[in-house]
## 1
Amino acid sequence: MVMSRLRFALPLLVLSACSPAPEPPVAPVSAPPPVASVPPAQAAASVALPNAGPPVAPVRPVTDVYFGTSVVDPYRWIETPSAERDAWTKGEADFTRQALDKLPGRAELLARIGQLDDGSVSVSDAEVWGGRTFYLRIAAGQNTQKLYVRDKSGTEKLLFDPDTVAQGDKHMSLDWFVPSLDGKLVAYGVSPSGSEQSVIHVVDATTGTILPDAIDRGDLGVTSWVDGGSFLYARLQKLPADAPPTARYQHVRSYLHILGTNPDDDTLVFGQGGTPGVELTDDEWPVLVLEPGTATLIAAVHNGVKRERALYVAPRATLRKGEPPTWTKVVAYDDEVTGIAVHGDDLFLLTHHQADRFKVVQTRASHVDLAHAKVVVPEGDAVVNAIGAARDALYVKVLDGGMSRLRRLPYGGGAPEDVKLPGDGAITEMFVEPTQPGALFSFTSWTTSPSWLTYDPAKKTLADTKLQPLSSADFSGVTSVEVKAKSADGTMVPLSIVYPKSLPMDGSSPTYLSGYGSYGSVQNPKFDPTMLAWYERGGVYAKCHVRGGGEYGEAWHKGGMIATKQHTIDDLLGCAQYLIDQKYTSPAHLAGHGRSAGGITIGGAITQRPDLFAAALICEGATNALRDETQEGGPMNIPEFGSVKTEEGFKALYGMDAYAHVKDGTPYPAVLVTTGMNDPRVSPWEPMKMAARLQAATSSGKPVLLRVEYDAGHGIGSTKAQHDAEVADELAFLLAHLGGSASAK
């Protein structure tokens, strides 16, 4: 989508990173309903904590028959909240906490990780509006990301600190922000305990005063400011107490809010029912785009996590209080448009229609005509994965051999220009907008601290904004290589390997192999200062760019979704074999990792080839695909994974369901399963069931632990302390089971 403003249209399982003069008093936040809390101590009394292991979950089989195939689910009862489940979960959490705290070197690791993290300032989501730069930052000594603004003189001001509105022992998270076009106001979302249940607020960027406006059910956020006194936003429906979990993200509507008015009286602008020209299914939801200088209002409609967008347009002049616009549908899903950029009446569309590595076409926003659209960026060897319209040109981000490249396409047909970047690495975030020239972006690599850079098209130069100081973590002894590994069908899969320069290539090194592979998401090089603690202990980190991702365009994505999902798992196994064959490691020293949708990847890997791994991390992982449709975000994920309501969908989901393929008496590796009790993306019962099943089935004698975070969700909005503690637990667990040293070398 338009890189300048739309960052909220995220897949429900997309991999997300954990967080990252006295101010006037901050107004209280209107919070959504209470989120999960730690069960009372007396609730755990009914579950004994065996000395030899975690509490044993009762087996109560439920058999489902899908198109003639019977599938037994021994722990279906864990899906339903109950006092019994709370007690079992608390027993698991307590046992795991005791076990992890006793691991050799865990305290030393936590201290080192905290030192590395505190010595690295994290800056994200930088934007420039009205001459002011807005950004989120976690500085040394801070535990949560806060909203800052910096004026042209370089003077910085704290605009909002979520710690000031914490609710008792529950932390609050700043989920997102959107400045007004003149930079005078900022809308932002705040939620409790990593739940992502955002309440929308507005702060005055000059005085720091919080305005009285508060809008709940704002999880998907503000999408565009109309002017200095109103904005467009998406709002979830108000659900009755007995609504099923699957209803949460259905019937999403977009509204016009005028500051100072009651949000319950806001004008419906786009949504199911009540807006002329609009026909939506329950699971379709809109993002409204209103860029400066354009006379056209655009609605980009999402069908769950489907990458392609349907587009509707309406004249901007019809946007007024009390009267919904009349919309015209101009782009269908079959047109395979995944991104847009608007400059005046020029509409640029990023599409993979007859172009697996994507192309960019140009038409008029006021009269969209795809049949006669001009191809301004043809398909090439590199993958076009983002576009943005600045005042001077269209900026195009491409992925070339795993590295980011930035190209500038002047309006009016000028020759494309390559923007010279500091080296090989990744543009992890980029901001451009139609009223100002150039681009602002964050650039990094596996071993290079990130920097926020600006490109000046007049001088053709890059400049460091100094928004983010270099990390104090010294990576001079660490290097990285990009190679390719052979998958089961002969496909060569990109593999990034980061390791100490002094690594002995004798197969003895503890190795952490990670894979994701969903939604066409590209796993860019990422600098993580806390991983230096791993490299200091002789560890290797490897990222397998499995199919299902977008590293080679849409064909790579489709090569690992629904019926082809086994390729995703095969690719990770192929990368594991490469690391073994090249003597980076051996099965006794190799661990696999998957987070979120990556739970499918690592879950499949250890159930199909448990002999290949000594340990595994399944972090907030999707491991019970057959039951995915019953949870909050389940229906939205059908376009990516399939539905049990069709025979094709069932076969695909059954194939990728790791939980359904756990076999009794199998020597599984040591496994650490993690979950956050307020997770809206992967319901906590999914990791819980996987942990219970592995605990009952494994014959290896190696532990299967369930780590439960009660004051967190999917990792989005977690505090720095929570992030550091989880990394310390994970690395200590791996070192204990991979034969590594708990002390730095």
Note: Residues 1-50 have pLDDT under 50 and may be disordered.
## 2
Amino acid sequence: MSDQPYFRPRPDAPAGASGLVLEEPLIFERGAQGRSGVSLPAPGVPRRDPADELGAAYLRPPADPREGLPAVSEPEVVRHFTRVSQWNYGIDSGLFPLGSCTMKYNPRVNEAAARLPGLAMAHPYLPEEKLQGPLALMVGLQEALAEISGFAAVTLQPAAGAQGELAGVLMMRAYHEAHHGGPRKKILVPASAHGTNPATATLAGYQTVEIRAGDQGWVLPEAVAEVMDEEVAGLMITNPNTLGIFEPHIAEIAEIVHAKGGLVYCDGANMNALLGKARPGDMGIDLMHFNLHKTFTTPHGGGGPGAGPVGVVEALEPFLPTPVVRRADGRYALDYDRPQSIGRLKAFYGNFGVLVRAYTFIRELGAAGLSQATELAVLNAAYLRARLASPEGGGFEVAFAAESLHEAVFSDASFKAEGVSTHDVAKRLIDYGFHPPTVYFPLVVSGALMVEPTETESRENLDGFVEAMRTISREATESPELLQAAPTRTIRRRLDETRAARSPVLRWTPDLDERVEAQAKGKR
């Protein structure tokens, strides 16, 4: 990398860094007239001017009106995109400790299975008799998820966890309309809930009622009983909650909700702490969405396809989205005859390639492997919590004393007095080669810093993360300006995130660097 003209040495690089920084401004324009990355034979037909055939009014201008299309060789193209890919950080690069988002490693066997021709090339509009293999896989995944979670039935149709939430609340609404003559008006949501929970309730037409947690970090039965009445459609709760703490009163809380005719919805984002150990359906939960990327190792982020299957108890099975994939008379079929269904949520039958990856993971590990994955995830999180809270690990303040499971939440109490923010700590971590953890969530913790290592990280990786955090803790006391200026090793220095959100630069143009620089200086 150092022999490339895009980098120069910088003496102020942090200890252990390569000492190289990208030259500014970024130069994306490459090539010269006459270069080409292709070798094509002569077309063998007379060349015609498109303007003569279509008329100039119907033609788009060149990509760059000044120079026309790029003229680059194949190595230049490959090197450019390889370089750009190396500027990003992903789960294949290193530890990705995003708490409550569970960035799991994506096993390559999943990718191999998803590319099998019989699965990857199966068109969803094929007749059922030509789709027996894909449909069999979907039924197998439904049955596996039902067994893992303790529910009677599962739909694979929702395209993400948030859409799975919406599917669940719509089924909740349909249930109340069928059994109570109306959808009811309110949904209870703990203060520490994921932001999608109140958003989903509002989208489905409900009023959200917030429930505060007790001093130990979990929801108290009396707090639910105080607001639970016949106008409440249900409770949306995460278990373990977003503090990583198991809700010890979950069964009692479910009884309180059920006594008034309500339903209990579980946000399945933290299923990584329960996999193979406990089943939400056995706790009094009525329905729950799975995040296949958080729990079953399918790809996460980047705007790509996701999957948020929903499991339900038997009483809610009639309301599942259509079509329902089922086994009947020795074959597999799509059932559209569902008069109480909430209808279709997703084109075709869900994001099938993601479903293949999750099914592969479950079959590869089996019951014992899934249980061991949970044990390792909880062990790694407990190890990080203990080390980071110790003086030797930086002395970071644990938000709640209660035992946590797959993730640990710290507050800003140990560095706030130095004028250092959680934001500063997160940005400084980038200088030491780590992706930052989740910050400022949950909102019930001051300056929250949430860490979740997942089960695949080795002790050596965790120790490296602790060492970086310990160094940052020392810098917060001795040289807080280092944190406040971070990151210093990235292509771009710290951005004005408020301005970026309000005035985003959504497309590249040749003057991009000048425009970004102008925004950084407060210009328009």
Note: The first strand starts at residue 7 and ends at 9.
